Amino acid sequence: MDDRHEQSGAILRTKRIGLHTQREPIVVMRSDCPVCRSEGLAPRSQVLLKADGREVAAILFQGADELLAPNEIGLSEAAWELLGGIEHERVRISHLPPVESMGSVRGRIFGGSLGQTDLARIVEDVVAGRYSDVQLSAFITAGTAVPFDDEETFALTAAMAGAGDRLDWEFDVIDKHSVGGLPGNRTTPIVVAIAAAAGLRIPKTSSRAITSPAGTADAMETVTKVDLDLDTIRKVVEAEGGCLAWGGALRLSPADDIFIGVERQLDIDPEGQLIASVLSKKIAAGAKRLVLDIPVGPTAKVRSQAAGHDLAKRMTGIAARFGVAAHCLLSDGRQPVGRSVGPALEMMDVLAVLRGESDAPADLRDRALTLAAAVLELGGAVGRGRGNERARQLLDDGSALRRFESICRAQGGFREPKVARLHRIVTASGSGTVQAVDNRKIARLAKFAGAPDSPSAGLRLHARLGDSVNRGDPLFTLHAETAAELNYALDYAASAGDAITLSK
Amino acid sequence: MDDRHEQSGAILRTKRIGLHTQREPIVVMRSDCPVCRSEGLAPRSQVLLKADGREVAAILFQGADELLAPNEIGLSEAAWELLGGIEHERVRISHLPPVESMGSVRGRIFGGSLGQTDLARIVEDVVAGRYSDVQLSAFITAGTAVPFDDEETFALTAAMAGAGDRLDWEFDVIDKHSVGGLPGNRTTPIVVAIAAAAGLRIPKTSSRAITSPAGTADAMETVTKVDLDLDTIRKVVEAEGGCLAWGGALRLSPADDIFIGVERQLDIDPEGQLIASVLSKKIAAGAKRLVLDIPVGPTAKVRSQAAGHDLAKRMTGIAARFGVAAHCLLSDGRQPVGRSVGPALEMMDVLAVLRGESDAPADLRDRALTLAAAVLELGGAVGRGRGNERARQLLDDGSALRRFESICRAQGGFREPKVARLHRIVTASGSGTVQAVDNRKIARLAKFAGAPDSPSAGLRLHARLGDSVNRGDPLFTLHAETAAELNYALDYAASAGDAITLSK
């Protein structure tokens, strides 16, 4: 269809109907709307909206007639925002022309491979919202069933990194990342504090929780402001050497969030996508050096040492092609890190480590030191083999704590994390030694209790691998803000069985 | 999660909000609904609704607060129908438990294969509405990227045929089917009339248009009633030997329509799914013998003779495992059949052939005779090699016409198809010989003109392959009911270019 044809289509005025649909733009036209008939539009048609130079692809539903005047089209929140967040007197509605890059996705489904140009066009269309969820799912599944090879993964990474904003720094910056899947693994604030205290530049942007009970941004938000614009991030990093900000406002690799949303619905995390996801964000953020934490355990994202080594090798190789020196560390992913799960509770663990409190969780401290050591060495703050000693020194002499506090002040001030209103201890129904902790069930418990939307919700673990437990001993304490959420978590604890497995 | 956990969840009352979403059940809760918070439900969560013993899986949106009281949940039309089409004072809402069969889909994505039990469970969950569109897309893409082998295709066919209603007949029945993709290929009414006139039993159920401008059910509906229940179908077939009914009301292989909806969004038609789609419907309809028309052409569904032969071989082999004798005929799919596209216009072609009118389209007549001959021979009405002669005789002596009319009377009465209000001739902008006709563009033109929703809309072709055309000669006449639709089709005709290609 050429422009002339696209210029046909009907004119309506927009109405924001306050429909929250997550990411997907949805528009609603009245069931008796003559435009649907004349345009040949039916429920679930993909339509193109044009107003004042903006274009939005959306899914059409019909109905909600009570909400709409005959000449109005209702916009979901996502559609409203993509059209500029204002009312439009005139919006042009027509069939969405077929997305051309879906042709190469179809080719990939039927056995072809995707080149750099193909992937650049696909990612561009994805970011522009031209792919429906069904099409996104097909793209991701095709690249999993016949896995993306190294060339495709490289090209996908480049396309994703190139499709959003990019940060440039006048100095060398280093970054760290965990591939995730491990509740409580909140090493980032400690690593950033140590690295900045050692004189490195570490502009860390983190995500909020996607499927987990807490992301680093959620945890940091319990003590400071994390929703920073680019200028503020620059100022904080120039003054303090590091920041701990939410990356979501920056549009670094915006395709990533879209792909992740679909992967979550499928409950898959294919390796090629994982590599492109991590590296595209870091490349767009301007990192030249990168320390990667890969937790390995039966209920972590990476299940075996062999899989961890393979992932590390591919990740390092592809990073190198972008001029990024990546160093991967495989870590113990058999149980949650620290003693807590949930934004505020995890932050309390972090503060305990930074403050050198006597009951600070040793495993969190050790993991953070190991990662910080790698950051210091890769960043050139110390020679090889000297990282651990220097990291320990900066933590133990209070330098890291002071740097953490001044980063928080630069971001908008420091406050202590809040404690939840309601607590309930869950006890062991038998005796034995703790043989396994199910990361996924622990995460679900914290989510049922309200994390991350209630920042103080979550749970505190009292038993760890190898501990001896007697019947009636506390296994964990649930923290919640409302009785309904507490009961929901207790219900799940009673029915889901063994989040913590004891030997007989 | 066990039952106890599922029994938690909140109670609301239902409100039908008249939202048309095609197939997908959607529910809307107020943005300030405390239930969302306490249940941890967010926009796009998959939820389970339970009321009076019925269960519906649905996608949650939030908003439309003006439509809903605080204790109400809004139901889309699909959700409303699945909950029995009545208001419920108490509906229980909870998270949809993970669909267990998605585990085997994930296994298939990561390189496994699917056994009979896996596919039976997947199809059962699909029919129960437990799969989101994203999950359906992953299932279909996985079975295309690494194509379903014969065992999987067999098992998928069995699962789909077993998941809905089944028809049993006290006598041997025969069926015919076209794999489609060719506008105007409306042979079915003629074949059924001839076969029934020859004494065979041919209980033909057809679909409405999915992506095409007309399905056989749409065309038949312009002359008689096609929305028949099972009892009426039995009576019609017992009295007349054949019927020409809409299959949609019968729940024969209901998974098929769901899969087709997703394939349409992806614009793919993978072979394994195609075989399972066709055979599962026919097996569920009780057919023991089946004649299959496979049109081959560059813009038809099957693009090459080799692909056609492969498909015929697989189709025949898998049909045989269900005790179905299938006979495949490859036919010319290079241009539309007959002279018309659109429900009423195609029916006029059919009637012209049945009535032996002098200007009846010869190609439609010839194709129908070829297929009828195969049906007569496979059904045992005549010996091998005698089908064509007998079919021609039954058509030429008026037996087929009389049988067609009596089938229509048995279904509820015969009426002549209506002519559209508006016509517009589109002429050639140059001179030459017709070298190619683009089936897809012709189909789109008819759809823009209003087909199939306006049964009289569509187009009549005046030029066919090999015809000499001079500048200004008519190429086709558009038929439409409204000026807007006519203009829309004219716009498309002007911009989409060569639906009909002339030699220079």
Strand content of chain A: 15-25%
Q: Identify the biggest protein-protein contact and residues per side.
A: A-B, 72 and 72 residues
Mean pLDDT of chain A, to the nearest integer, reads 91
The level 1 CATH classification of the largest domain in chain A is Alpha Beta
Keywords (chains A, B): Glycosyltransferase, Transferase
Family (chains A, B): Belongs to the thymidine/pyrimidine-nucleoside phosphorylase family. Type 2 subfamily.
Pfam families (chains A, B): Glycos_trans_3N, Glycos_transf_3, PYNP_C
Catalytic activity (chains A, B): thymidine + phosphate = 2-deoxy-alpha-D-ribose 1-phosphate + thymine
Commentary on this structure:
Chains A, B: This is Putative thymidine phosphorylase. Chains A, B: Pfam families: Glycos_trans_3N, Glycos_transf_3, PYNP_C. Chains A, B: Its EC number is 2.4.2.4. The structure is a homodimer of 504-residue chains. Chain A is α/β, with parallel strands linked by helices. Chain A has 3 domains: 93 residues, Barwin-like endoglucanases (Beta Barrel), CATH 2.40.40; 210 residues, 3-Layer(aba) Sandwich (Pyrimidine Nucleoside Phosphorylase, Chain A, domain 2), CATH 3.40.1030; 81 residues, Alpha-Beta Complex (Aldehyde Oxidoreductase, domain 3). A 6-stranded mixed beta barrel of chain A has the order 1-5-2-4-3-6. Chain A has a 4-stranded antiparallel sheet with strand order 12-15-17-13, with helices on both faces. In chain A, a hairpin with a 2-residue loop joins strand 3 and strand 4. In chain A, helix 5 crosses helix 7, helix 15 crosses helix 16 and helix 18 packs antiparallel against helix 19. The N and C termini of chain A lie far apart (70 Å). The relative contact order of chain A is 0.10. At the A-B interface, strand 1, helix 2, helix 4, helix 6 and helix 11 of A face strand 1, helix 2, helix 4, helix 6 and helix 11 of B.
